[in-house]
């Protein structure tokens, strides 16, 4: 049996990288092995772009998690991470399944034009 532990997932407030990106949840606390969803909304007039999720653990190093291309029909997945991309609503959520202690970090949603 895995002991239960609280994880803190922090999200910076306000715009992140390029265009306008917002993350409304300042902090999420979850139990180990739970599933958590982190929300991100963005604003752009571009039609061709990428959205990314990164995390910054206590070590300070930025770690790439997952990305989604605007014209990709299927939501991206990467191990325990998956996204819910809603292009019309301009929403890009990160879902972390089976959360673990190493998931405790600051999470960043980022935008990049596809040039």
TrEMBL record:
Q: Which Gene3D superfamilies match?
A: Immunoglobulins
Record's superkingdom?
A: Eukaryota
Q: What is its main location?
A: membrane
Which BP terms does GO give this entry?
adaptive immune response
Q: Recite the UniProt keywords alphabetically.
A: Adaptive immunity, Cell membrane, Disulfide bond, Immunity, Immunoglobulin domain, Membrane, Receptor, Signal, T cell receptor
Coiled-coil residue spans: none
**Amino-acid biosynthesis among keywords:** no
Segments forming domain Ig-like: 15-115
Q: PANTHER family, per this entry?
A: IG-LIKE DOMAIN-CONTAINING PROTEIN, T-CELL RECEPTOR ALPHA CHAIN V REGION
Q: Per its record, how is this protein called by name?
A: Ig-like domain-containing protein
State the organism of origin.
Bos indicus x Bos taurus
Taxonomic lineage is: Eukaryota, Metazoa, Chordata, Craniata, Vertebrata
